[in-house]
Design a protein that fits this description.
By secondary structure, this protein is mainly β. Helix content is 14%, strand content 43%. The chain contains 2 helices and 13 strands. Strands 1, 2, 3, 4, 5, 6, 7, 8, 9, 10, 11, 12 and 13 form a 13-stranded antiparallel beta sheet that branches. Strand 2 (31-38) and strand 3 form a beta hairpin.
Length: 209
C-alpha cells in the first residue's frame, strides 16, 4: 500500500497526460484497464477507470468473480464501490431455487483479450456479505482465490483506482453466471478513442482540484 501512495502522483502527472498511448481493454466488470508494467517479481501495476457517462453493461455485463492473485488498490478519484459475496457449493440433485444460485465457470485467459469459459456444472449460492464504498485517497484489498466480489460503481459516477497485483497463485480465475448461461468465449474489447479521451479528461480533473 505504501508503494501505491508513492506511485500515484507519478501516474497522474506522467501517465495520464499520455493516456492514449497506453494499451487498454474493457474489463467485463465495466471499467477500462490500463496495464502499467511488471516488476521483477511479476507483480503488476494497473490503472482502472470507470468513466462517468459510459455504460457499465459491457461484454456479458456485471459478474461476480474472484482473483488468482492478491490485490491492493488505492482510489485516485471518485468512489470505488463493490459488494463482497460468500460463495458456497450446493448439491445440484437437491434442485435448488432462488435468484442467488449461479453456475461456476473457470476463466482461462488467452491472447488478444479472449477468455475461454469452462464449467463442470457446479452450482453455487452467492450471498452478499459486505457492501464497500471506498472514497478517494483510501485503499482496499481483495484476497486471492477465496474472495468473490462484484464491482457496482454506477454509470453516473466516476471512479479511478491504481491497482497492485501480486504474482498469480492460481492458473485461472472463476466467475459466476446464471444457470442457463450459454457464452463459451468472451473478448475483452479495446476501448474506443472517445472512451479513452473521456477517461483522460475525468482523470485530469483530479489533479485540477
Amino acid at each position: 500500500l505504501a508503494l501505491l501512495e508513492k506511485v500515484s502522483p507519478v501516474v497522474l502527472e506522467d501517465i495520464v497526460p499520455k493516456l492514449e498511448e497506453q494499451p487498454a481493454r474493457w474489463n467485463p466488470g465495466g471499467f477500462i484497464v490500463f496495464p502499467l508494467g511488471l516488476a521483477k517479481d511479476n507483480s503488476s501495476l494497473r490503472l482502472h477507470v470507470s468513466p462517468k457517462g459510459l455504460s457499465r453493461a459491457v461484454l456479458d455485463g456485471h459478474f461476480i468473480h474472484n482473483h488468482g492473485w492478491q490485490l491492493a488498490s488505492q482510489v485516485l478519484g471518485g468512489t470505488y464501490r463493490d459488494v463482497i459475496y460468500q460463495v458456497q457449493k450446493i448439491n445440484a440433485e437437491s434442485e435448488p431455487t432462488g435468484g442467488d444460485i449461479f453456475r461456476l465457470y473457470e476463466t482461462i485467459r488467452g491472447e488478444d483479450g479472449k477468455d475461454r469459459l469452462v464449467t463442470d456444472g457446479t452450482l453455487v449460492r452467492a450471498t452478499p456479505s459486505e457492501k464497500r464504498n471506498v472514497p478517494a485517497g483510501k485503499t482496499h484489498t481483495i484476497e486471492a482465490v477465496t474472495v468473490y466480489h462484484l464491482p457496482t460503481t454506477p454509470s453516473n459516477e466516476f471512479a479511478a483506482t491504481l491497482i497492485l497485483d501480486s504474482p498469480a497463485f492460481a492458473p485461472s480465475t472463476h466467475v459466476l453466471f446464471a444457470r442457463d448461461h450459454q457464452l463459451k468465449e468472451r473478448i475483452r474489447k479495446q476501448p474506443s478513442p472517445d472512451d479513452v479521451a473521456l477517461a483522460k479528461e475525468q482523470l485530469r480533473a483530479i489533479t485540477a482540484i
